Structures are given as C-alpha cells and as structure tokens.
Amino acid sequence: MLKYDSDMIVNRGMLMPEIVLYPSSWLYNAGVIGFLRVLKECGETVENFLKDDGSVEIEESKIEEILKQPNGDGLNPFDKFGSWHRYYIKVTFYDLYNDSNFDEAIKKTIDELLKVRNDLLKKRKKEAVVSVDENKIKGKVEKNFVYADFFTQEELNKIKSLLEDENKTEPEISKEIYEILSKKEKQYKYRKAVAILFPSGGYYQNFFNPSNFRKVNKFLETFKSENFLKIADTNINVNINVCSFCTDRKFKVEPINFMFMSFLFPANSFKNSYWNLDDNNLTNICSLCKFFVIHFHLGMIKLQGGSEIFINAPSFKLMWNLNNYVRTLYGRKEITGTKEVLGISLIELSTKINIHLGRWEKMNIEVVSKYHDKIDFFSLPSDIVDLLTNREIASLLKQIGEFKILNMVLDGEFNGILEFGEKALRDAMKRKSGKDTGTDFINEDIKLKKNKEDLFSFSQKLFKLYALIKSELKKEVIA
Ligand SMILES: [Zn+2]
Fold first, then answer.
1. Angstrom distance (rounded) from CA 234 to CA 424
2. Same domain, yes or no, for 110 and 174?
3. CA-based, 20 to 30 A from 98: which of 199, 238, 444, 461?
4. What's the domain count of the chain?
5. How far is the CA of 294 from the centre of ligand 1 (A)?
6. What is the mean pLDDT of the chain?
C-alpha cells in the first residue's frame, strides 16, 4: 500500500515528497519488484529503498528523474530515451530472449536480402536493366528485423545499391549490410519488447496503442512522468477516489479498465483470488499504481516450459532477496518442484544476509506459480521455515548439497536423515576395512562426488544436521 508522507524530507535544499509502498496483493508486489529491477539497471542502489519494516521508500523525484527524457537534440527518437525507457526495454528483452537472438535476426535478414539479389540476377539475364524494388527490401527487413521506418532513406538506398552491385561478392555484400543492421540493436530490442507487452493479447493490452509501435515518439509520450504522477483533484468526494491497489488517494484514480488489465484477469474467468481482494474493492486504480503494474512481467521469473513463478512475502526486502536468488539459480531452467525452489531460496537468504524474520513473515512466504491462466500458491509449514532460516542448519544443508536430504527436511522426515547418515557410515567403515560395500546406495542415492568420496565426513554432517534440527524443534516446543 502506498502512503503519502506528509513529512517532507529535505534533500539538496528542496522539499521532496516521499512515496512509501507497502506490500499488498501478490500481483502488485510482483509489479513493484519488477520496477525495482529496472531501477537497479538505471544505476540505483535498490537496497537503500528497502526498509526493515518491509516497505519501499522512494522520493517522488526519483521516479520523475528516470522517466525524464534527455533534452532531445538527437534526430533519432531512440536518442531521446530516458533511463527508464531504455532499461524497461532492455530488461524485458533480456528476460524473454537470449543474447544471441539479435545476431540470429541479423543473419536471417541478410539471408533473405541475398535471396532478393539472386532473383534480381536471374531476371537480369532476361531483361536489360532491372533494379530492386525498395518495398521488397522493406518487407524483408520488417518481417525479420525492425520496422523499415527505423532506417534512414540513406541506409535503405545503401542496402539497395549493394544488392544491385554485380561487382561485389556475396560475402562482401553480407559484411556491409551487417554493418548497417548491427547498429540497430536498440531499435530491434524495442520492437521485440513492445510486440510482447502491448498488442492485443499481450501483457498490457493496448496500454500503448499498437498502431503507434513504429512511432517511437508516441512511446516516449505515453511513458512520461506526468502521466503517472497525476495528483488527485481534492474536490472530488473522498469516498470514491481511493485506489484499490495502494488504498491511497494522493494520485488521480480512474476505474479499472479490464481491457487493459486483461493479463490480470484471463478471458471470461475473472478471478479475485489473483488479488486476494473482494469484488467490491476492486474498482479503481491510481496513476502511480498503473505505472507499477506494467512491471508485473519483470517481477515474474520465467522458467523453462512457459511457467513463471514469484515468491510473495509480507516484506519487499524479503521479496527482493528471495526472488533474486531464485532468478539466479533457476531463471530459464526447468524446476523439479516449487517446494524445492522455496527451500533453496530460504537457505540462500539465511546464509547470505543477516535478516531477522518475525513469526508473521515466516508464516506468509509463498510461491506463486503461473502457467498460462492457471495460478497456484504454495507455502511451507512454519516449523520448516524456522529450520531453513536457522543460519547453522541452512549452511549445513548447503554444504551437504544433496537434494534428497533437502527434501527430507522439507517433508519433515527427519528420521530419514539419521538413517541415511547411518547407512553412509556403515559403508564408510566397510570401505575402510577393504570390503565391498555390497550396495548401490552410494551410486544411486548420493549425487555429489565429494560426498561419495568422503562418506565418513558426509555421515558426520548428516548426524550434525539431525541433532541441530532436533534441538531447534525442542526449542520451539518450549517456546
Ligand atoms: Zn494506487
């Protein structure tokens, strides 16, 4: 939720209103986390905005600053991109495509242009003077690369004359066209990103009108700070202008446009569980929340096979860290289960940063997974979260590094750890006395080489883990 702090903070001799965001529904939270990712790319230290009480505090002027367009004397509209515009596109592209995508598109475009040239050479054998139709070049470029409008007439002429030049070899022509195309990286990424985000059926359907995609100045106009920091008209009845997302009334509120929000509410199946809100509350959105909501896709972590996950928690600091771990470890990969993902991210949290979690926070950490229109929520029992957020247990689990053991903890099957340790110790003794261990246990159940090779120390770690867990559980009972 958002709170307009009436206390102004004094900064650089100016009065700066501060915006305070509190965790709310998971979709809003994912939007804010996505926004923080863009902010990080803009060069900001995101940790400074994350407060211990779980909120995000940010100066309004910061949002204004990143949305500000440089005084554009550049002729190219892409030179007028503010830092938000640049990095919103960049992070979106990065999440959706791999690094080689741009180069592959260039190669594909060149291949098609060379086909146009081959057709021309064939025709020339029959007719006297035949030139390449510029529209053909535009068509090939638009199909595989960027809008033809993103080329200057001079560049198009250059491509045309290269294709028509019989004195040059194919590799020579390819090389020169490559030089022209490779300068269009910003344009290419922009085109790919808007085509995913704003068309009909896209994430934010029609938020930016698809008929304007090739008019980049319109993009800059749509995403300017004045459109998101619209101060509410104070004369309006206070009862009706409360934002359903941040429950604030500082910024101008408008009724939710379900067409634009189609990504939130899949066709014909309006689900309020998406928002953890009831029908009556879900009516209005303020201009600033609209801005956060268009970062939703950047909060979700894309996995292999088209599913996406987000770790929701009652604190932005927690969400920022947990989701970053998951993104680093699992981004674009296949996962075995949401349970494991949550377990691993909690272990990373406990071993990497000093963070104290209250009871309420531990009980409300959940993995939200989205596959097409299907949404699932998963959380761990609070006693298991307690164990994983115990620094000693977490670092021991990390040292052990075996998924089988992690799963025993996640499932609360602690005796299994003891039995596993005993088996490992038995085999370690056999091995020491030169006997055949006689079982496939080592090969089948233990995955890591270091554990297989030093069964003795592996078994000791398991015993220690078991003892730590038992003593931690006893503490909980007493408490
Ligand atoms: Zn709002």
1. 71
2. yes
3. 199
4. 4
5. 13
6. 87
